[in-house]
Amino acid sequence: AALWIIVPAAGIGARMQSQLPKQYLPLAGKTVLEQTMWVLLQAHHLKSVVVALHPDDQHFQNLDVAQDPRIQIVVGGAERADSVLNALLVIQEQAAADDWVLVHDAARPCLQLTLLNQFIDSLFAGSQGGILAAPVADTLKRVGAQHEILATQDRTGLWAAQTPQMFTLAQLLPALQQALAVGRQITDEASAIEAAGHALKVVPGPSDNLKITRPEDLPLAELILRAQRG
Ligand code: CTP
Ligand code: MG
How far apart are CA 119 and CA 177, in angstroms? Predict the structure, then answer.
């Protein structure tokens, strides 16, 4: 079997409030997306990285990494799940059913290479998909429309899902198509796999695998990357 990686990078980064989409903002001497790609291109068993881009994307072709022959481009969709589906349809034409598909957000550049490859190795020999996740550290409040506290949630057993998430193509493509067909809200691939009734493993992930979402996340990511790489 081979590994195909999908990088959803078609978002506009509304919460980042910057002119440039956040995947193209500078981070530790490259762009956010290049930092992410630098890690992913060193994945074990890698066949190809399929990057989903916004239809109006003007920036990807200017990146040095765009010349890498292992990279393919697809047009993204309205929601993240649509972008992932478009990539899956391209992969389906080239892959075997028992090939693996790993999805990783463009906006998570602090994933460490050793962890990525440990994650891949821990799932690749089996048949069950899995995700990187971390136990929730904060106290969780359910809050109403007027910002009033309604309840304190018991956080026992609650984990925050991250990417990478990895599944066989044979499980992920029909599960995602089905979830989209019934209008299910899908914020990660695992939820579609769960809805299809397939078992999934959780691999404990680090809290420094942050997703760059808001302006204050960028300097944090810069610190994390510089500390990781010395
Ligand atoms: N993404 C995508 N296609 C979409 C929406 C998002 O490929 N239609 C990608 C983003 O580029 C990002 C990842 O999915 O790498 C995670 O999404 P998020 O952090 O929400 O990014 P944005 O949607 O760009 O940001 P925002 O929600 O603040 O607009
Ligand atoms: Mg979004």
Answer: 25
For the chain, the domains span 3-229
Q: pLDDT by residue (tens digit) across 54-86?
A: 999 999 999 999 999 999 999 999 999 999 999
* Beta pairing class for 3-9 and 100-103: parallel
Tokens for 91, please give them.
């992969």
Fold of 3-229: Spore Coat Polysaccharide Biosynthesis Protein SpsA; Chain A (3.90.550)
Of all protein residues, whose CA lies closest to atom 25 belonging to ligand 1? Answer: 13
How many angstroms is it from 13 CA to the middle of ligand 1?
Answer: 6
Q: Which two tokens stand for residue 185?
A: 């809200």
Q: Which ligand is nearest to the CA of 214?
A: 1
What ipTM describes this predicted complex? 0.99
